[in-house]
Amino acid sequence: MSFSNLKLILVRPRDPNNIGAAARAMKNFGLTELAVVAPFAPTWNEAVSAVNAEDVLTQAQVMGTLAEAVADCTLVIGTADQTRLAGKHPVYTPRDLVAEFAATNHRLALVFGSEKHGLTNDDLAHCHRTMSIPTAPDCPSMNLGQAVAICCYELTREQPTTAVIPNEFAAVGEIEAGLQMLLDVLREAEFLSSGNESSMTNKLRQRLLNCHLSSKDVALLRGALRQIQWRFENK
Fold it and tell me: Which of 77, 72, 178, 169 is nearest to 123 (CA)?
């Protein structure tokens, strides 16, 4: 896994010291690509506490939505404490994920939520996987800067040499475009309603992400959906 293929994303951060600590942790381990989604404006303006890592902050991308931030990625990992994942998702650790994906050339995004609430269910719907750092049950959540440091260490530490598996993974933005076409068709078919559209959108997004589609797969899906749309319009 190339360091140039790793992007760290902070979603709605509210503490400038945490942003600075995250940037410094990235620089400690040779990572430089940071994206910040919908930061609290005063917080972002004050985020200067990044000793020897000012360049990480000045070059950071500021995005309005998580969908924009992950659009060019082919593997998106959302983070949460174990209490949120118990019984709902496989609980991956940073080490598990490195071992599983070290032999691929994914464009990887690692997503952290706000200090107060973490990632929402809507945020996690944009992620292929969820991950948690093993912590003591009586204190499951971690400081944002510390969590970033641990993940950066695990992701960048030396791994056994393995052959890279050739692939054509579809970027999340491609999958999202296919999803929007699918939603248009489902609205036309009256499958969606105002009461279920939000939850169904998240469920369908998750199913598509979990299929590990290639760009060719997405192109085929969109071609089929275009034909269905044409039939609706010309029935």
Answer: 77
